[in-house]
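User: I'm writing a short report section on ligand binding and want a predicted complex to refer to. Could you take this sequence and zinc ion and write out the structure as tokens? A short remark afterwards would be nice.
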Amino acid sequence: MPLLDLPPWLLSLLLAPFGLILGSFGNVLIHRLPQEEPADRDVVLRASHCPSCKAQIKPWHNVPLLGWLWLRGKCAACGWRIPVRYPLVELLVGLLFAVSPWIFPFGTLIWFKGLLCGYALLVLFFTDFTEMILPDVLQFPLMALGVLFTLPQLQWPETLVKVWTESNHLLQVLAWHNGLQPAPAYPGFEPAVTWQQSLLGMAVGYGVPALVNQAYKLVRKTDGLGMGDFKMLAWLGAFWGWAPMLGVLFLGAGLGAAVGVPLMLMRRSNGQTMLPFGCFLALATPVVVFFGRALWLGYLGLTM
Ligand SMILES: [Zn+2]
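Assistant: Sure. The structure tokens for the complex follow:
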């Protein structure tokens, strides 16, 4: 496969435009999926329109980044200020695609998995941040995909692809490897996430809190927990295995407390302040995926 032999900088240039376009689609998902009306949630058939005046957006105003700059951040029809979130999401997804071949070897399963996870986290961060919603329609398919990603290695354990190392050497790596080792180094890959770890990650992430919630419902007759957060933990568990998922939960909770407690003290609120916990889980995930092992070993070193 000659395309896989291209050096990372060239791959970056080729991937960035796809990232910008998917970033633009990400904005559609972020805006429409949390809507109440089922018709408003359609992300495929409805043409882009201004959320304020409903005017249809002209194709050349819809070009990622450039459209927003050209319009100086205002709707062409009604002058509504287009939130900075729109170009920001396009830029972030563009960057995600551009840096992906530097982080994970292009064309491998771990590359695709990392890219998909990063994209999903960006979209969920903003739906949770703006509407406090983590849409099921994204999170259930992500759970299934996380488990599916562990299957090819069972069928074809030895499939090799060529990738570039940092020192411009071509290296052969396992195509279906879905371990956690990020690229530029790729000297030794971490063991792959097995289907058992993936299923267990999903079960612990969702099943346990769901049972607790069910018990709570029986006793108090109301929903106790925001289940969206646990569905997010479930698909992260399916993607990266149960241990990193728990790392994401603890780091996310720590980040949430670090932001939430001062905020509550400042506002003197009565514990009613709602924090978008999914945002903290999204921030914690890359830290755990890339540095989880190092952090864990450091922690063990401190305590032993
Ligand atoms: Zn408008």
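A remark for your report: The two ends are 48 Å apart (CA to CA). DSSP finds ten helices and two strands in the chain.
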